[in-house]
Design a protein that fits this description.
alpha+beta; Beta-Lactamase; Heat Shock Protein 90; five-stranded antiparallel beta sheet; about 55% helix; rod-shaped
Length: about 500
């Protein structure tokens, strides 16, 4: 069975590896940007605070040194306007009106003395007094009517009044916003590019692993002479392919030795058994009395049973070791089952057994016809040996999209409870069985070697049920007919 699946790309291991790797990279880069963003914001604010603190000290010094006459307001106002023009990269939202910087002088509870900036300054003064906390270090101030907050520094004069210098944070926020937008665009491009690279590299590597898996699965089903593909890359996947090929070399050598041993064993045992049987038949064909002939006939039957036991034991041993030699051809199960029923029908009728077949028509599988012939023969042999007279054996053959199923049922006593799940093991048989306990073991071994499965159980209404499934011949595209036929014997 090929390991190739029809899973979409999003369900593949390459997709999951790429997704997790990209997620880790994206989170890492986002954390780095967050730290960088905080550093830049703090640095911009530090520079703004340094400018505010220096300028407010200058304005305070000018206010102290300027005489309190009619020129006082004009001098201080001009100095404040000059300071506002020193703000770099200043944006204006309403023509030439200064809305980036404001200068304000006022007493704690009195009206405005001086004002430089957009508007009349009442909202700014109200926001400052609403804060109530006077700080020697710059602080943020939200003023009604302005979209962005101000960074404000203040100084107290000798006459008890305060000078406040405010710098709009609009430019700072604009720089940070542009930084975020550009980083987000670059970040998305890098993440997508990184995901593509990781996905391509991982998919390429896993495709090679998939090729190795498919080749390994085909080797187990066909022959051991094939090998998994290798490449010239000296990496872990290349080492895996080489290791698998070395392992297959050892397995092929072991299977060859097993076949040699079983062939030699079968030949060494069959030869004397055949010689003994031949001598007994020669003796039986001579002038032998009746009382002497019966033991000879019995001995010949025992030799035949011993030969069959030997052949079946070797076949089961090879099948259990996945070394059964199979010559696959296209086999029509419907035709094969009907032929076998025709062969066993006289014996079953003589014992008083009835046989029924329900078939869905032609069901073709790719299998060893001789082995399937022996499988069905073993099933019918079991029914013939263990069922009492007047029982019915029912066989049902059907096919689904991928498998063919043969169900054998009877209304006899069923399987012995004590054998349970061990009924497919060698030498396991019921109390009244006179066989060697190899029939069902051989059936299970052959079916498993063909990629199928066997289940056995007792029916609730009485009797035994055995179900066998085989993979259908995938080369056959024609659909099997759906009509059912019923054969009574």
């Amino acid at each position: 069975m090929s390991s190739k699946t029809a899973n979409p790309v999003m369900h593949s291991a390459a997709w999951r590896i790429s997704l997790w790797a990209t997620l880790a990279f994206a989170i890492g880069t986002m954390l780095v940007f967050t730290m960088l963003h905080r550093f830049v914001a703090n640095d911009i604010q530090r520079r703004s605070d340094a400018w505010l603190s220096g300028e407010v000290e200058v304005l305070g010094d000018v206010a102290v040194r300027t005489p309190k006459d009619r020129l006082y307001g004009r001098v201080v106002r001009e100095v404040a306007e000059l300071a506002s023009k020193e703000v770099p990269n200043k944006l204006r939202s309403n023509g030439n009106e200064n809305d980036s910087v404001f200068f304000l002088q006022a007493e704690d509870d009195g009206p405005l003395k001086l004002w430089v900036g957009a508007g009349d300054g009442t909202q700014n003064l109200a926001a400052i007094r609403a804060r109530k906390v006077v700080s020697d270090v710059p602080y943020d101030l939200k003023v009604n009517g302005f979209k962005h907050p101000f960074r404000v520094a203040s100084v107290r004069l000798e006459d008890g009044s305060h000078i406040y210098l405010g710098l709009s944070e609009r430019d700072e926020l604009r720089v940070l916003r542009n930084m975020r937008e550009r980083f987000l665009g670059i970040w998305l491009l890098i993440v997508l590019f990184g995901f593509s690279i990781v996905f391509y590299a991982t998919r390429r590597m896993l495709n090679y692993v998939r090729e190795i898996t498919e080749a390994a699965s085909r080797i187990g089903q066909s022959d051991l002479s094939s090998r998994v593909p290798t490449n010239n890359r000296n990496d872990e996947v290349g080492h895996l392919a080489l290791t698998l090929n070395h392992m297959l070399d050892r397995i092929e050598s072991s299977m060859h030795q097993l076949h040699t041993i079983t062939d030699s064993l079968a030949h060494d045992l069959r030869s004397p058994l055949t010689a003994i049987r031949g001598k007994l038949e020669i003796a039986l064909s001579g002038d032998v009395k009746v009382e002497h002939g019966e033991p000879i006939v019995s001995a010949i039957d025992e030799l035949d049973r011993l030969t069959e036991f030997l052949n079946t034991s070797l076949d089961v041993a090879e099948a259990k070791a996945d070394a059964l030699r199979i010559s696959r051809t296209e086999v029509d199960l419907d035709e094969l089952v009907r032929v076998m029923i025709g062969l066993y029908e006289p014996c079953m009728s003589e014992k008083g057994l009835r046989v029924q077949l329900r078939s869905a028509g032609s069901v073709k599988v790719l299998a060893d016809e001789a082995l399937l012939h022996r499988v069905i023969a073993n099933l019918l042999d079991n029914e013939l040996k263990h069922l009492p007279a007047s029982c019915t054996v029912s066989l049902q053959l059907r096919a689904s999209e991928e498998v063919a199923t043969l169900i054998v049922e009877d209304d006899g006593p069923g399987f012995d409870v004590e054998i349970g799940r061990q009924m497919f093991e060698q030498r396991v048989k019921g109390r009244d069985s006179k066989g060697h306990g190899l029939g069902l073991a051989f059936v299970e071994a052959v079916v498993r070697a063909h990629g199928g499965s066997v289940t056995a159980s007792n029916r609730p209404e009485g009797g035994a049920q055995l179900s066998i499934t085989w993979p259908l011949d995938t080369r056959e595209n024609a659909e099997a007919p759906h009509s059912l036929t019923l054969v009574n014997r």
